[in-house]
Design goal:
Length: 354
């Protein structure tokens, strides 16, 4: 009888259908944070996408087109939870829906359904930034300005543009040489160094690069050729903030006010920094400008007197305000793809990477 009762209980337990656990509902706190990934691109190597939900309403999105430029295209707007998805509405009105799944986001098609096809798995954004971004302050203090690394095969490169270049591989091939003057051709920078019979050519361009092992993003795609052997590729970045100024920056705000094209005679002002020569050129809204600057890794920045062309500028023009603001700048900060110019501790101008 006891055996029968036991078997009956066992059969009853086995025959009772188990209830499927419902997934926990999405909450604002779960969604908030940073999501990154490389999504498919029709005419580039991929789009490095980063979305940050900074509070319960606002999001900021940046997109970088790999193989073309390290320039980030920014967008922002509002977001809300819709069933099991996150619906973002851009400032210009366009909407995009993402399925929230396994603490990540999956981009959906305009009908709110999963994208199908061979590239379907690549429309996923992972929460958190990829590993690889490290504290490089000690290397900067040691004088290193630029670092790069390649995988399969592994190699490592460190450059002090005012001192020594070091290149190493797992095969014990290495070269330590005084850094030569870089040669700049368009957006490509090239160096050639030698140590005895050893030779190394390095080229890097700001077209964006993804580490194929860690998924970390770097602004520069790097190619190295050691002793005229096989060309190897990798990713690199300037770690000295003074060199991170290199490139073109477009004015986003001036003295706390959003920069508008209507406030200038022609176009929004731009600055182009050449870190190797510490020369600056650009556009002040009507006239061209050129001059010098001094910047260091601690954030100090000052401009020499800037020369400008003398075109007559009709209509509303804040050019003189822009130039006067530059003359008072004493510091700079780099935040993501934004350049902040400060007078003391006050932000007086903000630029976006172009």
């Amino acid at each position: 009888m006891r055996k029968f009762t036991f078997l009956l209980l066992l059969l009853t337990a086995c025959s009772t259908p188990s209830k499927k656990e419902k997934p926990e509902p999405i909450t604002t706190q779960k969604v908030m944070g940073v999501y990154t990934g490389v999504t498919p691109c029709a005419d580039c190597e991929g789009i490095y996408t980063k979305i940050e939900f900074i509070d319960s309403i606002t999001f900021i999105k940046s997109s970088k087109y790999l193989g073309k430029s390290s320039r980030a295209f920014f967008d922002m707007g509002q977001w809300r939870i819709q069933n099991d998805s996150v619906l973002v509405t851009h400032a210009h009105g366009q909407q995009q829906q993402y399925l929230y799944e396994n603490s990540g986001l999956i981009m959906l098609n305009p009908e709110g359904k999963r994208i199908k096809g061979a590239l379907a798995d690549y429309y996923r954004l992972t929460k958190g930034e990829p590993e690889g971004k490290k504290d490089r302050s000690n290397e900067v203090k040691a004088g290193i300005d630029f670092i790069a690394r390649g995988n399969e095969p592994y190699w490592n490169l460190e450059i002090d543009f005012n001192g020594t270049l070091r290149f190493t591989t797992l095969e014990s091939d290495s070269i330590v040489s005084k850094t030569t003057s870089p040669v700049i051709d368009g957006n490509t920078t090239q160096l050639q160094v030698s140590e005895g019979e050893k030779q190394l050519t390095v080229k890097f361009s700001p077209v964006g690069c993804i580490n194929n092992m860690t998924g970390a993003y770097s602004d520069y795609a790097v190619e190295v050729n050691f002793n005229q052997g096989k060309l190897e590729s990798g990713c690199g970045e300037f770690i000295n903030p003074a060199y991170q100024l290199s490139g073109t920056w477009q004015l986003a705000s001036l003295n706390g006010e959003v920069a508008k094209t209507d406030d200038y005679a022609k176009e929004l002002p731009e600055l182009n920094f050449e870190a190797f020569t510490q020369k600056v050129s650009g556009y002040s809204g009507c006239n061209r400008l050129t001059g010098g600057y001094k910047a260091d890794e601690t954030g100090l920045l000052s401009f020499s007197p800037l020369a400008t062309t003398r075109m007559m500028c009709e209509g509303k023009n804040k050019e003189s305000t822009f130039l006067n603001t530059l003359s008072a700048v004493s510091r700079y900060k780099l935040e993501s793809d934004r350049l902040l110019l400060l007078k003391g501790e006050e932000v007086v101008a903000e630029f976006t990477s172009k």
